[in-house]
Amino acid sequence: MLNRHWIITDYCKDNLKQLGFLYDPKMDYWRYLFPVRFWKRRPTLFCSILISRDKDYVCVNVIDNMNNFYPAFYCQEYGHYGDFIETAEKKILYKLKSLGIIEKKPEIKEKKKNGHTRTYRKSSKNKIPRRRS
């Protein structure tokens, strides 16, 4: 989820205010913060969504209550956080969908050569062909 590219469908100033984003003039971005995990009725983990209107940039981060990145969410191979990570991702994806933020799919180019279709990913540097079945 964290290595995805996100875009917002309507990032005009009025729409962002209506959705609940707050503007930070020092950093020049819009921020939306919502709780993901609670402990004894207090929020302990948050999802921070940052939007830059100039660059059409959307950043999704999971932070703790001290405003640090939450390591268990970023290093999932170390530890047993399966159920927790799944529920947190579901909450985040639901909120992103309700805010009108969608995933930007990588472009795929297809080339035909000798009757075979080869698929190349635009983001890869080596451009290794893969055969489609």
Q: Number of folding domains?
A: 1
Straight-line distance between termini: 27 Å
Main pleated-sheet profile? 4 strands, antiparallel
Could you tell me the radius of gyration in angstroms? 19 Å
SS field, number of helical segments: 3
Q: Which ranges are low-confidence, i.e. pLDDT below 50, for 5 or more consecutive residues?
A: none
The helicity comes to 10-25%
- Order of adjacent strands in the largest pleated sheet: 2-3-4-5
Structural class: alpha+beta
| Mean pLDDT level | 78
What share of the residues does DSSP label as strand, in percent? 35-45%
Structure summary, number of beta strands:
9
Sketch the topology as an H/E string, one letter per element: EHEEEEHHEEEE
Bulk shape = globular
Describe the structure.
The protein has one domain. The chain is built from 3 helices and 9 strands, in the order E-H-E-E-E-E-H-H-E-E-E-E. It has helices spanning 13-19, 71-74, 82-99, and strands at 5-8, 22-24, 29-39, 42-52, 57-64, 101-104, 108-113, 116-121, 130-131. The strands form 3 sheets. A 4-stranded antiparallel beta sheet has the order 2-3-4-5. Strands 7-8-9 form a 3-stranded antiparallel beta sheet, with no helix packed on it. A two-stranded antiparallel sheet has the order 1-6. The model has no long low-confidence stretch (mean pLDDT 78).
